[in-house]
Amino acid sequence: MRKTSMRTTLLVAALLLAWAVHNLMSPWSPRTARAAIVPRGLPSHFGIGLSAGPSSNGIYGWMPTSTIPWDYAYQYLSGGVNTNNGWETWNTSGQFPLSYAQGAASHNYIPVFPYYELLQSNGTCGSCGEAQKDLSNLNNAGLMASYFQNFRLLMQRLGPGTSNGIAGFGKTAIVHVEPDLSG
């Protein structure tokens, strides 16, 4: 990663942190309301993280050497569920999210996976705009069967059990399903 890109990323992270601290100290802060219950496995403080690939330019390099106590590392899972290019093809037996989660956890980061598959899948509305294509894909029973099968594989890789002889991650991980669709 180039120095300017890393500086920009760190600047954005610092601005987000300053914004959060400011809002926590304002009169309408959640601190003045009833205390929220933090789910087990998540930090009890305002956590911060960023996108980082599984390389020396990401979770195995600049992120841990930045000396910033990151809480989260995130990696998009994308490519479409019926394209033969989705995340499940990025390495053997769909183990990419498992490997990424283990790498993130080795640095005490909680892995976050934006699951972004619907738009890139092959459906009946190939030349439509994004919103129309999403709706068309949601209404395509065959595509959605592939979608749910793909999501099941992700849950097997991140869950505590063993599937097809592969032990799952079994620790805290966050999956943000279709962030662009839900936004």
Task: Provide the fold topology.
Blueprint: H1 3-25, E1 49-51, H2 62-65, E2 72-74, E3 77-78, H3 96-105, E4 110-116, H4 130-138, H5 141-158, E5 162-163, E6 166-167, E7 174-177, H6 179-182
Notable features of this structure?
single chain, 183 residues, alpha/beta, 5-stranded parallel sheet, two-stranded antiparallel sheet, globular
How would you characterize the overall build of this protein?
This protein is of the alpha/beta class and 183 residues long. It is 37% helix and 13% strand. The chain has six helices and seven strands. Helix 3 links the parallel strand 3 and strand 4.
- Give the H and E element order: HEHEEHEHHEEEH
Radius of gyration based on Cα positions: 19 Å
Pairing-aware structural class of the strands and helices?
Answer: alpha/beta
Parts with pLDDT < 50 across at least 5 consecutive residues = none
Shape: globular
Strand fraction: 5-15%
Please provide the count of β strands.
Answer: 7
- State mean pLDDT (0 to 100 scale): 87
Q: Measure the end-to-end span.
A: 28 Å
- Largest sheet, strands/sense/barrel: 5 strands, parallel
Q: Helical segment tally?
A: 6
Helix percent reads: 25-40%
